[in-house]
Amino acid sequence: MKRFLKFFISTFFLLPATYVFAEVESDQRKKITIIENHAPNIFAEDFINRQPGVLTLSELLRSVEKSYPLVLAAEKILTEAEYRYLAAQGAFDLQFKSMGTTKPFGFYQNNVGDAMFEKPTPLGGTSFFAGYRMGRGNFPSYDLRRATNDYGEIRAGAIVPLVRNREIDKNRADIKKAEIDQKLAELSIRKLKIEVIREATKRYWKWVGAGQEYLVYKDLLAIAKVRQKQVADRIALGDLPKVEATENDRAILQRESQLVTAERELQKAAIDLSLFLRTPDGTMILPNQDRLPIGFPEPISPRDLSLEESLKLAFLFRPEVLEYEHKRNKVAIDRELGYNSAKPQVDLVVATSQDFGPGSITRAKPELEASLILNLPVQTRRPRGEIGAAEAKMAQLDQELQFAKDKISTEVQDALSEVITSYKRVGVTKSEVELARKLETLERERFFLGDSNLLFVNIREQTSSEAAIREIKALLDHHSSLANFQAATAKALQDEKSP
User: Fold this and answer.
1) Comparing C-alpha atoms, which of 153, 278, 259 is closest to residue 210?
2) Which of 196, 198, 278, 357 could make an SS bond with 67 (beta carbons 3.0 to 4.6 A apart)?
3) DSSP 3-state of 399
4) Residue from 368, 205, 360, 218 nearest 293 by CA
């Protein structure tokens, strides 16, 4: 009979209060876009990106690329390398040389002026020259080459290396090294970009996760506050003992504490994210709660990811592989210089000259002169040392390249394993949330019927919220693991290469 009276009171006196609770709860749900209580929001990414005012991941990454200071600083490395390449090209700049000599006293009194342009070229190490000379006065018989006719002498010629410096010389080697340094600078920018995108992405999802946790605790507190009047009404009707009001007050205080902690975590996540979110002039932007996405994108199934294909893409796009290859090519240039130094110097010098104006008839006709310069190295310790050092360095780089490939392979495998595990964990926590919410609903119904107390209802609600938090953390781990996987396979660089 007593049980029947409780049921009668619950049905006819508490149904209106229950309806009010349901209406308030419905309004709260609308605030979080019609999502089940305590459950994280999971939507397709296209749907999330269409929400007005939402901060999307693509917007954040565009900000990183255009305004993040470390990326802008890294781009200066490339600018520096470009100027160093320009400096290396300066070895082939046109040069002007001149010399003037006078002998005002002595038996032989004369004046000589000599000016010449020289132009080294990368064409087999050949250099060209052209000049003008004028010699006036008395010259000894052993120095008649300095004398010219009255209008001076014009000459031109070329120096052609036949053995040493024909294939390579220091100037051409410096240009090749400068070209490689440009490529290395580009690779260093790519390496930094991969890491910055990984970190920015992980901080973005941490911010989204903190926002979802904040909504869970906010919703949990709202439920307890709505129930406060219901409990007071039932106590007034004699359907509940007064201790239930105290229990609900305790739950409110506990949930307020949890909400304050969650709010601080959300603020911290937003502050951390502002390091990457910037205006075009580089000023940091602190994202507010209004810019939070409506939820996490749907998890990506590992069935769409192939280890073999991922390894192939990683070896193709990861900057470390190309970096070691370029470093090896740079050392190979030093080895070529060593072999070049060990060769004999055999240079062909061809020159023609013509005197103008009154003067000696012997200088009136054009002259053509060819010379052969021979320089044989007797000892070759320096070239042999340079060759040996370069080969040892190349062997070292070969080993480091192999290790880099092994490291890339382990990183890709580990990242893929992390994606698979986190995906499974999302599925498990989702099922846990569904069961926890089902038990919470049943316990609340028992409480309305008088078969339970508020302590058990609070425990069920707290358990549901804890399960929801675990699902949020599982989703956060999943998307963070995807960021690690994309970094391991250089996904950002693949997108740049795609048409």
Assistant:
1) 259
2) 278
3) helix
4) 205
Identify any residues that bridge with 278 across adjacent strands, giving them in sequence order.
284
What span, in angstroms and rounded, lies between the C-alpha atoms of 451 and 6?
9
Best CA proximity match to 223, nearest among 470, 485, 443, 56: 443
Residue 49, Cβ neighbours under 10 Å: how many? Answer: 15
The three-class DSSP label of residue 328 is helix
The model's pLDDT over 232-258, given as tens digits with 9 standing for 90+, comes to: 888 888 878 888 888 888 989 999 999
Q: What angle do CA 30, 36, 42 make, to 5 degrees?
A: 95
Residues whose CB is less than 8 angstroms from the CB of residue 347 and which lie 6 or more positions away in sequence, other chains included = 159, 160, 161, 162, 372, 373
**Measured distance CA(109)–CA(101) in Å, rounded:** 11
* Residues 305 and 491 sit within 8 Å (Cβ to Cβ): no
4-8, 205-209, 355-359, 379-383 — most confident range: 205-209
E-strand spans in 66-152? 95-103, 110-120, 127-137
pLDDT digits (tens, 9 = 90+) for 446-472: 887 878 788 888 888 899 999 999 999
Question: CA 284 → CA 55, 68, 178, 422, 428, distances in Å?
Answer: 14, 9, 36, 32, 38
Give me the residue spans of the domains in the chain.
47-93+148-492
Q: What's the CA dihedral at 236, 238, 239, 243 to 10 degrees?
A: 80
Query: What are the phi and psi torsion angles at 371 (to 5°)?
Result: -130, 155
Q: Quick check: 18 pLDDT over 80?
A: no
Question: Do residues 433 and 38 lie in contact, with contact meaning Cβ atoms separated by under 8 Å?
Answer: yes
The CA distance from 325 to 158, in Å, is: 37
The pLDDT of residue 454: 80
pLDDT per residue as tens digits for the range 46-86: 777 777 788 999 999 999 999 999 999 988 999 999 999 99
Measured distance CA(380)–CA(389) in Å, rounded: 14
pTM of the model: 0.80
**466: nearest Cα among 203, 252, 480, 474:** 474
Structure tokens at 218: 């906010």
> Integer distance in angstroms from the first to the last C-alpha of the chain?
78
Distances (CA, A) of 371 to 133, 276, 355: 20, 67, 20
Report which of 293, 411, 212 is spatially closest to residue 45, judged by C-alpha positions.
293
Tokens for 183?
A: 């490529």
Residues 97, 130 contacting (CB under 8 angstroms)? no
Is the pLDDT assigned to residue 200 strictly greater than 60? yes
Taking the C-alpha atoms of residue 135 and residue 153, their distance in angstroms, rounded to an integer, is: 9
Fold category of 47-93+148-492 in CATH: Outer membrane efflux proteins (OEP) (1.20.1600)
- 69 token code pair: 């200071």
